[in-house]
């Protein structure tokens, strides 16, 4: 258990959808019905049999063995027999159909050409088919920023050296040369500082080069391709190249840089202090040709500023903040010269730490910390990360669909905030509530201030929103929108403060605030904090369905944690896509994935589940009622072939086709009107109400089938030649009505009739008729009894039976038709009301 | 733990993702099926389309219902209970076991004449022919004339399988309990004279049963020889090959037997017993008047509180008298029609009225 594999393994429970949980609940109800039915029948059987003339009349004597069986044993076997007789009420075949539907249905996602991305030549990928319908149930969307909302294709925009701004370097390499060309900078820093800065950019990274051309080509003309795990670094190196400093390559620890004068400078790479998300900076220690040992460091401003001794921080700081407001990613660059003696010590420490067997990471960190002090700030860089195509439209659509979008990012608050504005997560009229180190550190005691803020925000929100949470979603459109910004350190303050007395309800207050906000931005998040947030929301009251979308390895934990994880096949490798349930090329695809695919899958599978329970209940209810007329003797109403074939052949394909093809609303309408998504939120189609409706419908229909036929049989004969029908004809009439009703009910529900639907619906009915003729048309040599012989054909020779079958089918479907009409009238009246209120 | 690792492996190894060599064109096919854009008929059930359906159904169902109802009412049917539990009943004497064979006569009057073919049924009540133990107690192979099944009947027939070490033919509880009352009908033409009504024994069973499903065992011409080695059911008086003098109506293919073997659906049932063919002249088959029914009372139903009835009935295209179907059709048709009217009014109101009419349905 101490192996690396086990330690790294993040417990991944199997993801189960809300629909599956509903199925299980329904199953328990039906199991209860089954047990009740069996128990009722067994009890009544023994009550009925207490009269010996009923138990064993002269015409129907028991065998000796039956008489001698123990009564308790007999009761038990009777109970079991009833269970067997009624077991069809548990739709076993539903599981097969559901699995099939999910498996086949998931193909539609990977087939969708709208998800195909021209750049990476790939479409959507489905890694699990279990969660299709969950896509239609999402309440919270957690999205990463970099690479998800944004392109993650970085572009070097500007830099600042010693507080002097350089911009628009895109033109030529002469950007910095004093000789000619328009001066795109306002004033200049010292030339040495400029070069130092650019050298720092060229050296302080982990970029590797790849030459595209063949070896014998001239090295100068060779096209260089940079490869790095971080697109920022590439952008920086490319940026430096534009200013005249080209990183040529790294060979055997020798870093080569071509400077503005086309000279190759060689540096010996002594150490690389790798980037990590805690330090949020990286450093390299190099030795130049002159033998000087220099440390270059670049990192987030907050990670670098405290570690520089420079007095010119202020200028750079202002610059960095301005850049961040514009939505750029900023990095600060610093350097430090290391005396050879010091280097000896540092080198030793580093090697020692690297070799350490225990607590290596901690030791490394300590050494790094030690080394990266007293540096000199040179400047800062600003890199732009463009928003993805249609990111804003997608976010708007998700908002309109009633989803709450949370952005979880590791970036600076200002950067993230401006991105959020750009992608319209925050509107201009959104009132922002900030819970960040900035707002909190004003006060001396952080916690008090935090407490104050939380209470204040809650008051504000509660005041604004009506208490009923149900109208919340609709309320959004009318009320003031709120957005919340929180950063990692504040979040950990909130989450970890539970030890303090009296403050353990921070979390609940915080959650209350979160639930009332339309948009939440969490910045400066560590990867595990992302998962923590997802888990926190997941466990909210009413357990909302969460969806995480991200592209990088740092999003994996949140993708695994949420109900549905979506990976973007981005530039930061495939880890996210591999650990996700679905992966799409771009963030904009989320819109169709949720609004169209998710909605349809949910409606399809919910209908499938309800329909299965429905059709099995009205299948078995007549059989139950028949027990009251056959002395509770477990006499089946239907022939064994019908019992077996009902779920397998007669009624399975139409619902499967429905559950794959149904589009009760067009895909285009679904994507263009996101509000439709709200209609199915909260597992709306599998709640108690619809379940009771279907159950009562089934009970009603089952009763109609049985008693309709019962009253039909209150006559001497149904045929014009006075011949008499027996019990198998009775069962066959019930069964025929059943098969037709159940199939036609589905036909009434089908709103999207492709040729496949026509084929399977009418085909199933035709097959039933054909099979019945066939089954009753032959004296089957391998059967012990020939009870169905010509029963079906004889049945159809009677006009009365035809009339009765048509009548019973119609009566059974009547409530359904009525409901459709009433709904229609209601909708129309609502429209009329709406028109009047809008015109008034 | 092992399970977890598997799950993890699956996740990691799942997609074949080869980022380097994405030369293959993975563009999804642009087919109507794959893009879920198959041409489809998208019916929208609006009030406009459903309302006419209500009217049409009403307009179709009500006439059908009236037709059925009238037809059903024109059917003549008389039912005579001859169980004899009431002390005043002529058959009361037959309830005592010592009185076998027992004959009794019941007088009745036909107020109206019965025209066309008239059918005579016997009806039993509280007789569970649909009891599971009873329903399965038969051997269809034996009844189909299978020679081996004749001598070795199915185990389902227990305890009516063998008697005195001989296989019973026909075996089983159903056959054993075959209805064996004899009913004869006489018309009292005047004070002293009565004419017997000719009752046909043939043509009462399903054609397929008589000709395919039920067959006498193979063998010589003599029916008795074909049933050699078997014994009669315990409750029977005569063996199966002596059920009728007509060889085409004796043995397993005796129609009374076939009718009995088709087990009834409900504990109260009727079975076709005889048919009275229409006379060629213009006289009604059974003119109105006084009749009496001669009963050879053999079949005991008293022990299980059963009842026995004799039914005379004419027939129509829709079978015997059956008020249910007609009434049901009329009711459903009317409801449908009325709903159509109500909905039409509501619909109309919404379409025209501009003021908010609060209609709650």
UniProtKB/TrEMBL annotation, chain A:
The keyword Membrane applies. Its EC number is 7.6.2.1. The keyword Cell membrane does not apply. It is found in: Membrane. InterPro entries: ATPase_P-typ_cyto_dom_N, ATPase_P-typ_P_site, ATPase_P-typ_TM_dom_sf, HAD-like_sf, HAD_sf, P-type_ATPase_IV, P_typ_ATPase, P_typ_ATPase_c. Its cofactor is Mg(2+). The chain crosses the membrane at residues 25-48, 79-98, 611-629, 641-661, 691-713, 725-747, 759-782, 802-822. Residues 577-825 form the P-type ATPase C-terminal domain. It comes from the Eukaryota. It is an enzyme of class 7 (translocase). It is a multi-pass membrane protein. Keywords: ATP-binding, Magnesium, Membrane, Metal-binding, Nucleotide-binding, Translocase, Transmembrane, Transmembrane helix. PROSITE patterns: ATPASE_E1_E2 (PS00154). It catalyses: ATP + H2O + phospholipidSide 1 = ADP + phosphate + phospholipidSide 2. Belongs to the cation transport ATPase (P-type) (TC 3.A.3) family. Type IV subfamily. PANTHER family: PHOSPHOLIPID-TRANSPORTING ATPASE IG, PROBABLE PHOSPHOLIPID-TRANSPORTING ATPASE. This is Phospholipid-transporting ATPase.
From TrEMBL, chain B:
Keywords: Cell membrane, Cytoplasmic vesicle, Disulfide bond, Glycoprotein, Golgi apparatus, Lipid transport, Membrane, Transmembrane, Transmembrane helix, Transport. Residues 1-28 are annotated as: Disordered. The chain crosses the membrane at residues 44-70, 324-346. It is a multi-pass membrane protein. Signal peptide: none annotated. Pfam families: CDC50. It is found in: Apical cell membrane; Cytoplasmic vesicle, Secretory vesicle membrane; Golgi apparatus; Membrane. GO terms for biological process: phospholipid translocation. InterPro entries: CDC50/LEM3_fam. PANTHER family: CELL CYCLE CONTROL PROTEIN 50 (PTHR10926), CELL CYCLE CONTROL PROTEIN 50A (PTHR10926:SF17). Belongs to the CDC50/LEM3 family. This is Cell cycle control protein. It comes from Erinaceus europaeus (Western European hedgehog). The lineage of its organism: Eukaryota, Metazoa, Chordata, Craniata, Vertebrata.
